[in-house]
Design brief:
Length: 636
């Protein structure tokens, strides 16, 4: 009788194969030195899963193994598809968002179509298992042999842990990612999917405190006026017993504030209309086809190096623009569920100086838990579908941005000074003309002769609704006599991530890669009195709020943000979910390194430390409710 193979080999092949496929498809890497750790952890897992496969009779053990192979394959495949859509691995903290983000049937179908080949590649081990499962030994093992397998699991796991000690100094080394840093994307790339997910679940259940990395900062100049409040951090430090909170205060105390400048107070007293535009990107803008968008972008402030980094779809883009902080799965969960104080979120900042605040969305009012998060941003007067908007517009999928603006304009036009926040939806995926996108179909005539593929034409067609909405808004502001006294700010929430890199490059004016440049977009900050000025400095969504506060002359402390006033002297910086970054000196790709001007190793080290701190402090500010404690100290 032919000798059968041990199930340890089966599981080892399955784990290593799926880790290789994930590393290749998610990070464009095949094998590197870090994969040694992945193999060791995979070996350990193989012993563990084999241990659970030999408790019962052969037939039942085979069934157990089949179920485990299906679950493991599905686990890896789902993580890949999630990453393909959101550019971040799935986290247990995302469970509340999954129903929202994936509730569109057509997007799911689109994902299956575009990633069909990748899905087949993931399923190869499962098909091989079905063909050759009879070649493996599923017999019930006696107790001593099972214990032996479990001892091997413990031994190989210890070896895997010890191997992490090879490099303790590199910021994103396997050791630091395992013990000190909470970067799920980077951890997945370095430690593998299974280990990273295990750590993520453990940290979600038991908590995890990421350490702030020491940064060398310059002292403030006595000759410069800063956007800075009189916060007695020494007093705050002395009054708290929690060491972690003390470290936050120490960090904020030494953080460099940004300077006031020639644009400070430029828009003082004016109204503000802020638009978070669904799926908006610079590829949607054309001088002839979208004259209003083109005008608002290229008149006045013209930001040529602006980015809308994708962090967990619209909710991540919204959090960046509204708070000036970095969103992660953990941070967004705190925002949704714990009602943290965010003192300088846009609604709160303007309400403090006597503005009336309004917010509108032309989709479900509970989507992304906005019925909870809007009050934290300072928008208690929030209307969306199912809490009032359905009485004004047709809320069936897809609602019109034009209808939303036309029907709500009268609510605030005579109630100045006001800040009005619009979250649009007409530009939403899927991008097709087959019935899944009624807005694309509605505006199809405008794009029918363009020399692009159908998904690209459908995207451009959907974005036409934003063009028409802005045209209508400006016309209404002018008729009401308040156009000169109103500032329009617009940013996209994220790039159109259901389009492939190739499809985006069909219409892009330059070749974009999928990690950084795919996020390159436009920022609109426009008023009729603006003089044209090109701003080449790198900026992103987290810079929008502090820039607005400076332009409107609102007192704030720039140390309490990750983003910076774009008009300050601070070097430009855009931070991405992968912990890649773009500065005025070049681009750092987390998987390949720095490309740009010749810079020192110290510069790269400093910037990576700064990025690590940006993620850490964003979480701690909300987790420890630092804004509320500072409000109490300064008497706000």
């Amino acid at each position: 009788m032919k000798k059968k193979h041990t199930t340890i080999i089966l599981y080892l092949f399955l784990f290593v194969y799926l880790e290789i496929i994930n590393k290749t498809l998610m990070f464009n890497k095949l094998l590197d030195k870090d994969f040694f750790n992945v193999i060791l952890f995979s070996l350990s897992l193989s012993f563990l899963f084999s241990f659970f496969t030999h408790f019962f009779r052969e037939k039942n053990n085979k069934r157990i193994c089949t179920v485990l192979v299906i679950l493991i394959t599905a686990f890896y495949l789902y993580n890949f598809l999630y990453f393909s859509l959101f550019s971040m691995p799935f986290s247990i903290n995302d469970l509340e968002l999954v129903n929202n983000a994936l509730s569109f049937y057509e997007i799911g179908l689109h994902l299956l179509q575009t990633d069909f080949l990748s899905i087949l590649i993931f399923l190869i081990p499962f098909f091989l298992f079905l063909l050759y499962k009879n070649n493996f030994d599923f017999a019930k093992k006696e107790r001593k042999k099972r214990i032996k397998i479990f001892i091997f699991f413990l031994f190989t796991h210890i070896i895997a842990l010890l191997s992490l000690n090879i490099d303790k100094t590199t910021l994103y080394s396997p050791y630091n990612l395992y013990y000190h840093l909470n970067s799920l994307t980077t951890s997945t790339e370095v430690l593998g999917v299974f280990t990273s997910q295990r750590l993520s679940i453990k940290r979600a259940i038991f908590g995890f405190q990421e350490k702030l990395v020491t940064e060398e900062t310059e002292e403030d100049s006595e000759e410069v006026s800063y956007n800075k409040l009189d916060i007695d951090f020494d007093k705050l430090i002395s009054e708290t017993q929690d060491e972690s909170t003390k470290n936050i205060y120490r960090y904020l105390k030494t953080k460099k504030a940004t300077n006031k400048n020639e644009y400070t107070g430029l828009y003082k007293g004016k109204n503000l209309i802020f638009i978070l535009a669904e799926g908006f990107n610079s590829i949607a803008v054309d001088e002839i086809r979208t004259p209003t968008l083109y005008k608002l972008i290229h008149e006045g402030f013209d930001f040529t190096n602006y980015y809308s980094p994708e962090f967990l779809s619209t909710t991540g883009g919204e959090f960046q623009a509204m708070t000036g902080l970095i969103p992660t799965q953990e941070i967004l969960k705190i925002w949704r569920n714990e009602n943290p104080t965010i003192s300088y979120a846009i609604g709160n900042s303007f309400e403090k100086i006597g503005y009336n605040t309004f917010s509108y969305h032309n989709w479900l009012y509970t989507y992304y838990s906005r019925h909870k998060t809007m009050p934290t941003l300072g928008f208690n007067d929030y209307m969306a579908c199912k809490n009032g908007m359905e009485k004004e517009i047709n809320c069936s999928w897809l609602p019109s941005d034009v209808d939303m603006i036309n029907k709500t304009f009268g609510n605030y036009a005579k109630n100045g000074p006001f800040v009005t926040y619009y979250i649009t939806v007409s530009g939403h995926a899927p991008y097709n003309f087959m019935g899944g996108n009624s807005i694309a179909i509605k505006n199809k005539e405008v794009v029918k002769d363009l020399p692009y593929s159908d998904p690209v034409k459908a995207y451009l067609s959907a974005q036409m609704e934003l063009e028409y909405a802005l045209s209508s808004l400006i016309e209404k502001l002018e008729m009401e006599g308040i156009l000169d006294d109103t500032v329009i700010v617009l940013t996209g929430d994220h790039y159109p991530y259901t389009l492939t890199e190739e499809e985006i490059n069909e219409v892009s004016t330059y070749e974009r890669e999928e990690m950084v440049e795919v996020n390159h977009s436009n920022l609109i900050i426009w008023n009729t009195n603006n003089e044209h000025k090109v701003i080449e400095k790198v900026a992103s969504q987290i810079d929008v709020l502090p820039t607005i506060l400076n332009l409107f002359g609102i007192n704030y402390d720039s140390r309490l943000f990750i983003g910076n006033d774009i008009f300050s002297d601070e070097e430009g910086l855009a931070i991405f979910a992968s912990r890649s970054w773009r500065s005025d000196k070049g681009t750092y790709f987390s998987n390949t390194g720095f490309v740009g001007e010749e810079v020192s190793d110290n510069y790269i080290t400093y910037m990576n430390s700064r990025i690590a701190n940006s993620f850490t402090i964003s979480k701690l500010l909300l987790e420890k409710n630092i804004y509320k404690k500072i409000e109490k100290e300064i008497g706000e």
